[in-house]
Write a structure and sequence with these properties.
The protein has helices at residues 3-11, 59-71, and strands spanning 20-26, 34-45, 53-56. By secondary structure, it is α+β, with helices and mostly antiparallel strands. A 3-stranded antiparallel beta sheet has the order 1-2-3.
Length: 80
């Protein structure tokens, strides 16, 4: 999604509206079930002009991620 698209979507919302992120994941590969986790937007990280990372999750996890990003740690997309 482009920043301009996000701005267009949010422009019509009240300025005091909450912003949440919903993660949709399958229960397992063979099932027709999904799990939806909702998190409030906790932080925005933008190390470069051409990218923005919207961050949501548990407070301690968000803090740990921000610390890692700011220290320049290499991050993996895979859970350890």
């Amino acid at each position: 999604m482009r920043v301009s698209e996000l701005i267009d979507i949010l422009r019509d919302k009240p300025s005091d509206a909450d912003v949440e992120i919903a993660f949709v994941t399958p229960v397992d590969d063979d099932a027709n079930e999904i799990v939806v986790n909702h998190f409030e937007l906790a932080a925005i990280y933008s190390p470069f002009d051409d990218s923005v990372l919207l961050i949501a999750g548990e407070d301690a996890d968000v803090d740990e991620l921000i610390d890692a990003l700011e220290s320049g740690d290499n991050l993996s997309d895979e859970a350890e």
